[in-house]
Specification:
InterPro entries: Cadherin-like_sf, Sarcoglycan_alpha/epsilon, Sarcoglycan_C, Sarcoglycan_N. The protein has 392 residues and is of the alpha+beta class. It is built from 8 helices and 12 strands. It starts with a helix and ends in a 31-residue tail after the last helix.
Length: 392
């Protein structure tokens, strides 16, 4: 059994040195072949690393691991919370893909309390970079210089990074162009109060907060050139200022404690429904008055007004008839009778001539029948031109 293990080249190595990290501050631990006493043999991608918590299958929630093809190394990064125990042990298993040699490394981590934690923070999202780009200390220094030289000069003594994560890890989408950066979400904090320049910048970008994330080059601010010259393209829709908070992790832990307190006091804060007698009663008298009585009252007034108008108009017509002289009325009646007679005669003339059979069948005995006095006039003979002799 021991011989087989030696052939497989399984070697257990426990590290003697430990890594010291500070609460509420981002740490970056580089995992390289030197940690396992290995050297490159031509292929930089021949080593694979698998970190985890000692005797656990995965890392703690506040520690992230990323392997960088650019640096050919792995990186452990994160922010230790304030309420965590002072010592953490990580185990890193390394594999040589060429020789299939495996090595085991235990990495002790000591968590040191931050003496002067940050009270104010600036939340940023950088679109043109990946998380591995922020492992470069020179780039972090350039970002700090933008604030200490221009926007937040009072933070020069103690400005540090309080949060670092990939935008894709936090739910953002991958860029359509693979050559573009995935995006980095970062926070920098200090004990100094926020400067008027930062407050003015936040007011400038505040209308963009209704957008979850802005497209690239969607908005250019007054300090856009300052960040672009340093190599940072910011998403201004995510720009935030956080006042009076020790760190992002402290805020997260306090939120978790509040949730636990709410769950523990759930029974005490349980809502009791009111009784039926305590339910307020509503009177529908006003609704009834406005809905039914008011329209009926208006309709009654309109009907009375219309009745008065019609009555007065009828009285006016009767008065006019009484004032008219009698001879004018008789003259008008005579003209009306003559007109009626002429209209009746014209209608009778237009009726077609009935045959004797039709006439005999009709009710001629009726005194009111119009067929009794009807006579059909025969048509005149056709006109024939007389013939004259030519000698005449």
């Amino acid at each position: 059994m021991i011989t087989n293990l030696i052939v497989c080249s399984v070697f257990y190595f426990v590290a003697i040195h430990a890594e010291n990290i500070v609460m509420t501050e981002v740490f970056i631990i580089r995992v390289e072949p030197d940690m396992f006493n290995w050297t490159y043999e031509g292929d930089p991608e021949q080593f694979v690393y698998q970190p985890s918590l000692l005797n656990s299958p995965d890392l703690p929630s506040w520690i992230n691991y990323h392997y960088s093809n650019r640096y050919h190394a792995g990186f452990l990064y994160g922010v230790p919370p304030e309420d965590h125990k002072p010592e953490v042990y990580l185990e890193i298993v390394a594999l040589n893909r060429k020789t299939y040699e495996t090595k085991y490394h235990v990495l002790p981590i000591h968590i040191i309390e931050k003496l002067n934690p940050a009270k104010s923070e600036v939340h940023l999202k950088i679109d043109n970079l990946n998380v591995e780009d922020m492992f470069d200390t020179e780039r972090i220094k350039r970002l700090k210089d933008v604030f200490t030289d221009t926007l937040w000069k009072d933070s020069l003594p103690d400005l540090y990074v309080t949060f670092l994560a990939s935008a894709v890890q936090l739910g953002a989408r991958l860029p359509l162009n693979p050559s573009e950066g995935e995006g980095v979400v970062i926070r920098i904090g200090s004990r100094a109060h926020l400067s008027p320049e930062l407050i003015k910048l936040q007011k400038e970008v505040k209308p963009l907060w209704k957008h979850t994330s802005c497209p690239r080059d969607f908005k250019r601010t007054t300090v856009e050139r300052t960040f672009r010259d340093a190599g940072f393209a910011l998403d201004w829709c995510v720009f935030r200022l956080i006042e009076d908070s020790s760190s992002a992790m402290q805020q997260h832990s306090s939120t978790s404690l509040e949730k636990l307190e709410k769950l523990s006091n759930l029974e005490e804060d349980r809502w009791d429904s009111i009784s039926r007698n305590e339910v307020p009663q509503r009177s529908y008298t006003h609704d009834f008055a406005f809905t039914i009585l008011v329209p009926i009252f208006v309709m009654t007034i309109l009907a009375l007004m219309l009745s008065f108008i019609l009555c007065f108009h009828h009285e006016g017509i009767s008065k006019g008839m009484e004032d008219t002289p009698k001879h004018e009325i008789n003259h008008y009646a005579t003209i009306h009778r003559a007109t009626h007679s002429l209209r009746s005669l014209s209608n009778n003339r237009d009726l077609p001539c009935l045959s004797p059979e039709m006439t005999s069948r009709s009710h001629t005995a009726s005194p009111t029948s119009t067929l009794r006095g009807m006579h059909c006039r025969p048509s005149p003979p056709p006109y024939v031109r007389p013939k004259f002799k030519p000698d005449l």
